[in-house]
Every structure is written in C-alpha cells, then in structure tokens.
Amino acid sequence: MNLPDTKKINIAFYTLDFKTSGVFKIISTLSQNIPSDYNLHIFVSDEHDENFIPAFKVGGVIHYFNIKDPSSRNPIKKIYKNFLRKKLLKKAKKDYKIDLTVTFSENPNLHNIVTRQNDKIVICVHNYTSINIAEDIKNRLYSFMYNRLIKKYFNRADKIVTVSSGIKTDLVNNFGMNKDLLEVLYNPHDIRRIEEMSDKELPAEYKYLFENRFSIINIGRISTQKGHWHLIRAFKIVKQQIPEAVLIIIGEGKKELTDLLSTLISDLELSNDVVFLNFQANPYVFMKNADIYAASSIFEGLPNVLIECMACGTPVISTDCRSGPREIIAPKTDSSYVTDNIEKAEFGILTPPLGRDVLNSSVPITKEETLLAYAIIMLYNDKETRSSYSIKGKLRASEFNIKNTIKYYDRLFKKVLEQ
Questions:
Q1: What pLDDT does 284 receive?
Q2: CA distances to 25, 62, 123, 176, 327 from 86, in Å
Q3: Which CATH number characterizes residue 35's domain?
Q4: pLDDT tens for residues 58-75?
C-alpha cells in the first residue's frame, strides 16, 4: 500500500495480558518510543482486576477485551477462549481501521495472522521455538498442535521478526520458514531509565544481603527454562570456596517448582545462603549492587536481563544456550558455535549449556555445573576482569538502546506497509 502523506498510520500491538515478562517490557519500551506518525492502539485479550496497574508504563490507547477465566486449563474453555480472542481481535482491527498489527508471542502471533483484515501483519518471535514448544508445552497433543500451526501459518505473515540470529536459524531449519520473511531485530531497551532506576537507594530491608558478602544474583520467573536447580547445585561448590558468597534469586513461579528448589536448598545445607525474593518493581537497584549476575538458562531468545545487568555495570556469566547469550556477550563470534569450557568472551563469560533434566541433591554434580561454579569463583578471584567487564558491559548494553533500535523498527514497519 502507498503511505498517505497526511494521515497517521494506525498501528496495533496485541497481547494476551500485561503480566510481568520480557515480552511486556518490549511492548512497554516500544509503545513509549514509537514515532509520532503512528496512532498506537494496544489490544489486551484477557480479564484483569479493575484496580490493576501494569508493572511498566505503556504508551498509546489501551483496549481491554476482558475475556474471562484466562488461566483455565479446561480444553473446551481453552478452545472457546481462543475463538473469542480471534473474534474480538478481528472486530477491533476493523473498528479502529488498523493498518499494521504487531504481535510478540506464539498464541497472539497465530491470532494476528488468522484475523487479517486490511492490515499488514508483523509477528515477533522471542524464544528458541523448537525447544520452547518441547519444554514449556508438556502435553504432547498441544505440542504437536503448536508445531503444526506454526509451520502452517507463520509464513502467511508479511514479516517475521526474530530477536536473535539463533531463533532465525531455528525457524528456517525446524519449521520451514521463508528466509525472505525473516528479519533479526534485537530487543530495545530504555538504557537511560535503567541507569536512573539503578542509582536509587536499595531498600533498607535488603541491604544486609550485599554488605560484606559476595553477591551473586539471578532474576527471572521460576520455570524449568531458567534451570535454577543447576545454579543452586553449582553454588554449593562456590560456597565451599567463597564462604561469604550469597545467591539471590528474584522471581516467582509455580509452587511445584519452587517447593522442589526449596527442598534442594535444604538438602544441600544452603538455607542461610540462598535467598528468594518476589517480584521487585525496581530490579535494577539489585542488579547494580550485586557483584555478578549468573544465568543458568536451558534455552532463551535474547535474554533481556543480561543486557539490563550490563547496563547497570554488573559483570555477567551465562550458559551458552540457544539462543541469544552468545550474540550479546560474544558478538564477534559465530552465533552457532557452542562452548564446551569456560569462555572468557569480550563482554562476559560463557559456560557450556546445561541439561534439561531437573536434578535433586542425590545426583552427582555435572561437568557443566562444575564449570559454571568455577567461572563464578574465577571472577571472584579476578577483580581486574570484573572491573573490565563492568566497563565493557555498559558500552555493549548501550548498543541496544531504544534510541538506536527504534529506527530499525520504524523502517521495518514502513517497508511492510509499502509492500
């Protein structure tokens, strides 16, 4: 379509909810920085409490569909909810004369494609899809269904944005995506806001965690994707070498997994040294006060938290999982390469990927967990390298600044509209 000279572009972001997540952060950042030649509408599918206040600010005009019982796992209700979501999204696109609709995760991506009106469709993929489906969707029927739906529908989008080169390769090799539809755009970050928030004073009740301690921090939802049991098991080795070490895990998750982790901590006699904190409105002040950040993820897309920690000047260690950590920490290397040892990369440290199986205290420590522990100990002993990574990390994080990345999103949106 030819872009009009005087008319603003009606663009819509569609999401299921405003729960705290990496995707919601991206929507928040993009919506607050989108150029003035767009009229932005944000369609939110699911029911929310009437007193609900999103954890992050959002730009544009928000429209809630208020579909009830969003968490129900009843198969019939799930089918009906998805039918209703598509019906209301289709109507909203028509009512607000949407020119371009952008979505950011699997279900919304599928809804976006099948509700096409006169709008162009951009879908964004934020996770390593083949592993995500296998790990997060335990029901084999649902896993099979999602796999088939992605293969059938994603190529019908006008553009598929992936947030890492690894995700792009995964979609081509495992889902048959058309290479011409795919474009890699890294997640945008409001670096100035992160820096300002990190400079605030740490809440008094948490200061003891950082005083006269060597603090290792991990932030993210408690899920099997994040591999927290590996980090806790590795921390047992760390604690033997660094008596003043403390592991701080910020996040929330399902009780089944949090109970398992609590049992593991007790069995390893780490109850006084591993601290779980719930969601924090300002995680950046915790990042800045920590000595290092350690990520034990089994898989990722492009982990926002690594970039945020680097922006706070905190040295980072991450598993070299598929995908994203290598592209952030070692951008000049081949993104398909996977390390089998401790790799002192340009902007942080990478360690070998960890196994998918949830391990308890009776299972012997693995080689990969041992290397993760040794990487932490190495940084503890090498203050010069820690200082270097702190400085270099801030420079690397600045490359993901929304002021730089928004122009690439704007260019892509305009290009799609002109097709």
A1: 97
A2: 24, 17, 15, 25, 35
A3: 3.40.50.2000
A4: 999 999 999 887 667 777
